[in-house]
Structure formats: C-alpha cells, structure tokens
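ok so I'm stuck.
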Amino acid sequence: MNPENSETYINHPTWGLLYRICMVDENQDLFTTLYAQRLFFLVTNDLKVLKFQPIGRTEARMMLENRLRTLRRSGNSQEYEQLQSVFQRTFQ
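replied:
not stuck anymore, here's the structure
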C-alpha cells in the first residue's frame, strides 16, 4: 500500500473510515476504526481487491508488537518511534 511513514485511510463498507496502523506483511496491513479505535481489521490487498478480516484487540496488539520487534531488529529507529507512539495511544 503506502510507506510506513504516511497516513493511509480506507473506507470500510459497514464501519466507515479506517486508519492504517502498520504493515503486517507484504500485502497485509492492520487498520482500526478512525475514531473509537476499538475495532481492528487485517486488510489484504489481493490483486486490487481489498479483503477485510475483522480481528480481536488482542490479536491486533500482538501483530503490532511483532512489527515493533521487526523494526527494532532492523535498526529503523524513526519508524520504530512512530509506531511505538501509535501503540501507546491505541493499547495503553
């Protein structure tokens, strides 16, 4: 989709505007509802078709923690700091 440091929003057919939290995999990103940040979705970009998979808060937290570990290991401190801030706002 987009680089880590840009803000990305997509429109879910039922839940409205979603905010991209982070990349999970090459074609998967973690999104949350824009205002409440209580519903989470794993969004897969599969040949120009977006697939929305609702996931629980615990699973979303684990995905974000895994991404933080990956960034810390790679030495990408700027992305790590940005994502750490998102993590604290979302889960603490």
